[in-house]
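Sequence only, no structure available. Ideas?
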Amino acid sequence: MATVEAEARGMQHCETTALGVLLRHQGLDLSEPMLFGLGSGLSFVYWDGRNMDFPFLGGRVRPFDLTGNLAAGLGLELRVHETTSPRKAWENVAAPLDAGHPVGLQLDSYHLDYFTSKVHFGGHIVAMYGYDDQDAYLVDTHQQGGTVSTSLTSLARARAARGPMTARHRSFTLTVPGQPPSPESRIVPAVTACAETFLHPPIANLGHRGIDKAGTLVPTWLRRTDTPQRDLPQAALLMEKAGTGGALFRNLYRDFLGECTALLDSGHLRTGHRLYAEAATLWTEVAALITEAGVSGDAQHLVQAGTLLGALSRIEREAMEALSRLGE
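Reply:
I predicted one. Tokens follow.
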């Protein structure tokens, strides 16, 4: 049996929740928006593959990229273990816990006992702060209960799962160096890196181009499914409630930029903050229109959503153009 001190802060996104636990244990206490922003977490993807039942709208970088970005930006020591061996995977977790350090885990949330929504998501990230002979003790998002437990058997299944976005029993720890750079000094590189990626995506499904593409394709969604009453509200729910912090992560990035304006005197930052506040409101309106289209079967709601997405592509491009000039 081993446990370390851990605190659930009522956070909304799984990866920032886990990062907060690991860093507070090291004496570095950052807000959830600051963790998300310093990790250059904002993005956009419109994804509709042949093996998908329905298109997916994503608002953040890939799972674990945020952790890597944050560690690189703040000069943290990030130790990552992956293995195909369940025995070795457990040793990789038990050793730091026995030494008094919480551990981050990437796993498939479908297998966790406390998850009531049984949907496979292999990019879920939690902080583990203890275990005994039967259970693992975790910190998850506020929506999932904060400080929770799951059986060691279910944890093993979740970590061993294979499929989209899964990792091979990935576990990780973070160590803050003796003289870490101040978070304030990392705002400019984190913001400009995020802006450049968003403004110059390699394919049309990503960044502001992806939002524009969504504006063209969302109006066709009633023809994309035989069960619009299920699939459209589910897509909208993912945008608002599935660990995004609301408005497809735009609420988190708006709040990050708001914190930054209190630390740095920059007109570019204030412009970005104003525009992302506008964008966050519009994303919530888009989600509501998609839900209404699914419930009513009226395609006009999707036409309206498409118009808003076209506006959002322009608003977010203008915001990121301002933020890309932050270092000038």
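The radius of gyration is 20 Å.
Hope that gets you unstuck.
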